[in-house]
Specification:
Number of strands: 7
Oligomer: single chain
Bound molecules: flavin-adenine dinucleotide
Distance between the termini: 41 Å
Largest sheet: 4 strands, antiparallel
Structural class: alpha+beta
Strand order of the largest sheet: 4-5-7-6
Helix content: 40-55%
Radius of gyration: 26 Å
Order of helices and strands: HHHHEHEHHHHEHHHEHHHEHEHHEHHH
Shape: globular
Length: about 475
């Protein structure tokens, strides 16, 4: 056996310095050489180390080989061996949403919970071109002033209310964070943010294509900014990064067709959480999946055996499947055999967290002021609802003006409190992970409530499957309930 560390990501500044010091002018400081070497593994019998040495000394040949293998033969996963880290700075929260909807990448974003917002925001190009800039900037300034007032008032209130906590380690920071996390509900979606993104070339090509099809100028400009440094560094692994009619015309036609087809809006409940569909008899399906995985028989036999089990026997099987698990362990893969589809109506703050769960499927609608806003309970407690709603109303006035002329950019003036509907599909394994993080006592209250309602709905239809579903902070108590002190 032999394992060779063939590459790893290093800060680009370090690479630049090293190249300068070594007067390195070869063009092989690119992840393309790794992709090209790995691409040859399937057909070239030489050791991988030799293939890499070849790629490093003949970058042009490596690039041609990448083009042939990735784009000619369609062996697209080869492009996944090239990975990039991108600092994305000074974009709006809406632009962050547009990028972070792509699931095969890693993100870490500046938190509006932990960092005081300084009022920086993005003025979208369409709004400026339509002559609404003054009105837009005034509405954003109003939102930001309200943020500062609410933050100060919430801080005073919460510092008094949690005086005992202030004396503990990090207590002051925690309580200050609670004030920030609630005040930010009035801040607009134009607010500037920054995040780090780690992505492979294959996924980035997909991201670029979709971002370039976006109707918002900021998002299209961001696509160009993302592509520019990589087009020079790694020209052979990102090729089909332009939108086609599939990304543009088709989407518009679908929207028109959907509008023509829907004749009424009944059922648009706006309920925070609704379980709209799930696998038939999830507890039976889980037992069948477990018997299949661990029993070594065909699925039909596993299913029949599961169907014949008593409730007590099924409970014992599921209990065993979840035994010895810590709150950090993923549930057994058999839990992926059952799916649950929820319709959620969530605030922008809530969605900002929800979208980060990449193992879920999410169909996301536009923000809709008709769905109302989420008001943090602490804002109600300090009696500042009037100021809160004034900021919301100011944003919605501006929204209506913008919507008349540049509808694609109207959402920039909505706030973190505005809502949208999301249809999300999770398997039971991901639901366990989601609940562990988001129903935990450290989770933000808004998404924590969503996680609680999702758990309650899932428990009703799958009581055995969900027997250990809970936030990390409830794990030990739930474990004692199910397993005793064994
Ligand atoms: C209390 C709290 C505070 C947070 N604060 C911040 C913050 O300040 N800034 C911020 O940007 N985010 C923050 N997050 C978001 C957090 O970093 C995660 O992005 C989010 O919780 C989704 O979790 P996940 O990646 O485990 O879930 P999913 O994406 O659904 O993934 C589920 C599981 O799949 C596996 N997985 C998925 N993708 C990969 C991969 N590429 N490589 C390896 N394994 C993978 C992991 O086992 C993962 O647990 C916070 C989350 C919490 C709960």
């Amino acid at each position: 056996m032999k394992v060779v560390l063939a590459g790893y990501n290093v800060d680009a500044e370090i690479l630049r310095e090293l190249k300068e010091k070594a007067r390195w002018d070869a063009d092989n400081v690119t992840p393309e050489t790794l992709s090209a070497a790995y691409a040859r593994i399937s057909r070239d019998p030489r050791d991988i180390e030799e293939l890499r040495a070849d790629s490093r000394t003949a970058t042009d040949k490596a690039r041609r080989s990448n083009e042939t293998i990735i784009f000619g033969l369609g062996h697209a996963s080869v492009a996944e061996h090239a990975v990039f880290n991108l600092d994305i700075i000074g974009v709006s929260r809406l632009a962050a949403e547009a990028v972070q909807q792509f699931r095969l990448a890693a993100y870490t974003e500046k938190s509006q919970r932990y960092i005081t917002l300084d009022g920086d925001f993005v003025t979208p190009p369409g709004i400026a071109a339509a002559g609404f800039e003054k009105e837009f900037r005034a509405a954003v300034a109003f939102q930001n002033d309200t943020y500062r007032e609410l933050y100060a008032a919430l801080k005073t209130h919460l510092f008094k209310k949690h005086a005992a906590l202030l004396a503990t380690k990090n207590g002051e920071r925690t309580v200050d964070g609670w004030a920030k996390e609630d005040a930010r509900y009035v801040v607009g979606l134009a607010t500037a943010t920054q995040f780090g993104m780690t992505v492979n070339a294959r996924e980035l090509e997909h991201v670029l294509r979709r971002l370039r099809a976006d109707r918002r100028g900021e998002i299209r400009a961001l696509a160009e900014a993302l592509h520019a440094p990589l087009a020079a560094l790694s020209p052979s692994i990102i090729k089909y990064a332009r939108p086609t009619a599939y990304d543009t015309d088709r989407v518009e036609e679908l929207a028109l067709l959907a509008q023509r087809t829907i004749s009424h809006t009944a059922g648009s409940s706006g309920e925070p959480v609704r379980l709209v569909a799930h696998t038939d008899d999830p507890d039976l399906a889980l037992c069948a999946a477990l018997l299949f995985r661990y029993g070594g028989v065909a699925y039909d036999a596993a299913y029949v055996a599961a169907a014949e089990m008593s409730t007590a026997a099924r409970r014992e099987l599921v209990r065993t499947a979840l035994s010895e698990r810590s709150c950090w362990d993923h549930a057994d893969r058999a839990f992926e055999a059952m799916e649950f589809i929820f319709e959620l109506t969530v605030s922008a703050t809530n969605y900002a967290q929800l979208k980060r769960h990449r193992m879920t499927t999410q169909l996301v609608q536009d923000y809709d002021p008709a769905l109302g806003v989420t008001v943090p309970p602490n804002v109600v407690e300090i009696g500042r609802e009037k100021e809160f709603h004034a900021a919301i109303a100011r944003g919605e006035e501006c929204y209506a003006t913008i919507a008349g002329k540049v509808p694609e950019e109207r959402d920039y003036i909505l706030t973190n409190a505005h809502r949208r509907r999301v249809l999300t599909k999770l398997n039971a394994r991901e639901l366990y992970h989601f609940a562990a993080l988001r129903e935990d006592e450290h989770a933000q209250w808004d998404i924590r409530e969503t996680a609680r309602l999702m758990r309650e709905a899932a428990e009703k239809v799958a009581p055995l499957t969900m027997m250990m579903l809970c936030g990390k902070s409830d794990f030990d108590a739930r474990r004692t309930e199910i397993y005793g002190t064994e």
